Amino acid sequence: VQLQASGGGLVQAGDSLRLSCSDSKRTSSNNGVGWFRQAPGKEREFVASISWNGGNTLYQDNVQGRFTISRERAKNTVYLQMDSLKPEDTAVYYCAGAYGIGCTLYAPMYDYWGQGTLVTVSS
């Protein structure tokens, strides 16, 4: 597995979590990285993405202003800071990398995916 998402857990509404996406093969430092999520019984949806140098970011409307994507290229890690969590944010969160791409919300544009991390927000 090239990408590993971590940091999920059980929290209450209004709490915060920070997810991490680590690249064991150290290839993502020059690629765009995105976060997606899939709730039980629902399709996978885009959450946020960041360009290779962190200069551009893109967010789903429902998380804009609550979630922040960032990256530390030296650590080959991309973060998703999630604040003011809501029960509807409950899902398995996945990170993915896209060769030669800045920011995109289109899942087919991503070339490699990591295993997910479960986030559960109780009301």
Task: Provide a descriptive summary of the structure in words.
The protein is an all-beta fold and 123 residues long. Helices cover 0% and strands 48% of the residues. The chain has no helices and eleven strands. Strands 2, 4, 5, 6, 9, 10 and 11 form a seven-stranded mixed sheet that branches. The chain has a four-stranded antiparallel sheet with strand order 1-3-8-7, with no helix packed on it. The chain starts with a strand and ends with a strand.
* Class derived from helix and strand content: mainly beta
How many β strands by DSSP?
11
The percentage helix is: under 10%
Q: How is the biggest beta sheet arranged?
A: 7 strands, mixed
Question: What's the Cα radius of gyration?
Answer: 13 Å
Provide the residue-averaged pLDDT: 93
- What distance separates the N and C termini? 34 Å
Number of helices: 0
Low-confidence stretches: none
**SSE topology string:** EEEEEEEEEEE
Strand residue content: over 45%
Shape: globular
Task: Quickly list its features.
single chain; 123 residues; mainly beta; seven-stranded mixed sheet; four-stranded antiparallel sheet
Strand and helix map with partners:
Elements lengths: L2 E4 L2 E4 L4 E7 L8 E7 L6 E6 L6 E3 L7 E6 L4 E6 L8 E8 L13 E2 L3 E6 L1
Parallel strand pairs: 2-11
Antiparallel strand pairs: 1-3, 3-8, 4-5, 4-9, 5-6, 7-8, 9-10, 9-11
Short description:
The protein is built from no helices and eleven strands. It is an all-beta fold. Strand 4 (32-38) and strand 5 (45-50) form a beta hairpin.
